[in-house]
């Protein structure tokens, strides 16, 4: 049985005259209130007594927050308010508002949009690995739930690239992938960290990734902090972690400070943390600059950051935790860092001329 009650919604949250509401009993004490306008049906479900109390002013409209639903369709008819079409929860379109008020409606819309986007945006997580048999299973267990949450309709991937490891790293990744469909193991000859991340970035672009995130396989970064970057992806082209309080040794802190000084001297750019292995990049901006990075460049992440900043892309630096290495031996020691640094200076000087 349906009872047509004209103008019932008029007093609430901006609904104007001429609107028709239908109060139709569903089952027992549960009731359904349907407000119609412009081809949209907005449903509020709850106890009928609660509705009557709200209508008479004893309960504020905000107390109905969370009960909003919408049906869309061109077949809406005012005399019965019937409509056909798809049903979307928690979102209101057009000029009408839910009884909970405009502010709550806006919140529902943003939450719904964010939830939909995080499941449809195609994300590729790129992780280079070299001789990481002590860490790799834990790294997979840490990051696989992230790619599951942001599955992109099944198109997102956790890509781990074995850089010619001499231990069982690649074998362990392949074994783990047997029951993890979004985990993609890749392997290649040993070329170093810079060349490996470039390989991973290009692979992600070729595969159609919309967002590319890179971190390392030593367990120093935390997957639970990924949301800090992901929540900013629409506002910024690149969101990078800032290792504000590094826990991986004083020598690494010195290297970062020296690199920051070198980039200022060579390029005239002040960059918060150019080499951080915790970065989320939009497809368009990565594709724009990756072609400018020399093949097999050792400090490819650093150079990409220089291009982002110099190109005035929208960049945000977000503080992150950076723990000590969780196992295994670091393949980059101080003598190797010095050697890479000297070569990088030469490369930077040459690149400055063409920027």
3D architecture notes:
- Helices cover 35% and strands 24% of the residues.
- The protein is of the alpha/beta class and 355 residues long.
- The chain folds into two domains: 2-116, no CATH class; 121-352, Spore Coat Polysaccharide Biosynthesis Protein SpsA, Chain A, CATH 3.90.550.
- A seven-stranded mixed beta sheet has the order 9-8-7-10-12-11-13, sandwiched between helices. A six-stranded antiparallel beta sheet has the order 1-2-3-4-5-6.
- Strand 7, helix 3 and strand 8 form a beta-alpha-beta unit.
- Helix 7 (250-267) packs parallel to helix 10 (334-352).
- The radius of gyration is 27 Å and the shape is globular.
Question: How would you sum up this structure in a few lines?
Answer:
This protein is α/β, with parallel strands linked by helices. Helices cover 35% and strands 24% of the residues. A seven-stranded mixed β-sheet has the order 9-8-7-10-12-11-13, with helices on both faces. Strands 1-2-3-4-5-6 form a six-stranded antiparallel β-sheet.
